[in-house]
Specification:
- The structure holds 2 protein chains of 2 kinds.
- By secondary structure, chain A is mainly beta.
- Chain A has strands spanning about 5, 10-15, 20-25, 30-35, 45-50, 55, 65-70, 75-80, 90-95, 105, 110-114.
- The termini of chain A are far apart.
- Chain A contains no helices and 11 strands.
- Chain B is an all-beta fold.
- Chain B is built from no helices and 12 strands.
- Chain B has strands at about 5, 10-15, 20, 25, 30-40, 45-50, 55-60, 60-65, 75, 85-95, 100, 105-110.
- In chain B, the strands form 3 sheets. In chain B, strands 2, 5, 6, 10, 11 and 12 form a 6-stranded mixed sheet that branches.
- In chain B, a hairpin with a 6-residue loop joins strand 10 and strand 11.
- Classes of the chains: A mainly beta, B mainly beta.
- The interface of A and B includes residues 40, 56, 99, 102 and 108 of A.
């Protein structure tokens, strides 16, 4: 089966601009997660979708971040306007069942805000 | 709150050396514990896991034992290879939750 696909793989934008990251989960995986790793620190949870519904968005840092999953398939994460501290690697993951069975992660989008 | 602390890297070893990457955790309840690995240019991959105290997870020659008394889950491998060069992340999952809590990652480089 195809893995979790994220694009772009890299994005460099100026402070104040808008960027949209996309994640295509494995087909049939109802659970979709976003995480990010900022400046070599720990990977932190952002939010969790079950199908098209936001199950847990407790990790979203502020209202400049908007995640959507229309139709319960692919998801987008929009940052508007981007700030310097938003630079990092954004990971998406999906799972069919409970996370204890393991996620499948994408290779991430490296976002650099200059 | 729940947290994971890993030994700081980077770690550089010679091929066939013994590897230990320390991981300790703080958690309420009884977490499941995981090691994930990120090879260059790839996504995070589950390396091994343990779901209860004294369980040993193993895969690809790597092992880690869930030690409740010391709240630790140290990663070990008896003889590393150049292909083991990657970033390793320790993580926990709280029972009933659906999100992982990660450590900061340890970059491992193996020289031939």
């Amino acid at each position: 089966e195809a893995g979790v696909t994220q694009f772009p793989s890299h994005s460099v934008i100026e402070k104040g601009q808008t960027v949209t990251l996309r994640c295509d989960p494995i087909s049939g995986h109802d659970n979709l997660y976003w995480y990010r790793r900022v400046m070599g620190k720990e990977i932190k949870f952002l939010l969790h979708f079950v199908k098209e519904s936001k199950q847990d968005e407790s990790g979203m840092p502020n209202n400049r971040f908007l995640a959507e999953r229309t139709g319960g398939t692919y998801s987008t994460l929009k940052v508007q306007p981007a700030e310097l501290e938003d630079s990092g690697v954004y990971f998406c993951a999906s799972s069919r069942y409970d996370v204890d069975y393991g996620y499948t992660f994408g290779s991430g989008t490296r976002l650099t805000v200059v | 709150g729940d947290s994971v602390t890993q030994m700081e890297g980077p770690v550089t070893l010679s091929e066939e050396a013994f590897l230990t990457i320390n991981c300790t955790y703080t958690a309420t309840g009884y977490p499941s514990l995981f090691w994930y690995v990120q090879y260059p240019g790839e996504g995070l991959q589950l390396l091994l896991k343990a779901t209860k105290a004294d369980d040993k997870g193993s895969n690809k020659g790597f092992e880690a034992t869930y030690r409740k008394e010391t709240t630790s889950f140290h990663l070990e491998k008896g003889s590393v290879q150049v292909s083991d060069s990657a970033v390793y992340f320790c993580a926990l999952l709280i029972q009933g939750a659906q999100k992982l809590v990660f450590g900061q990652g340890t970059r491992l480089t193996i020289n031939p």
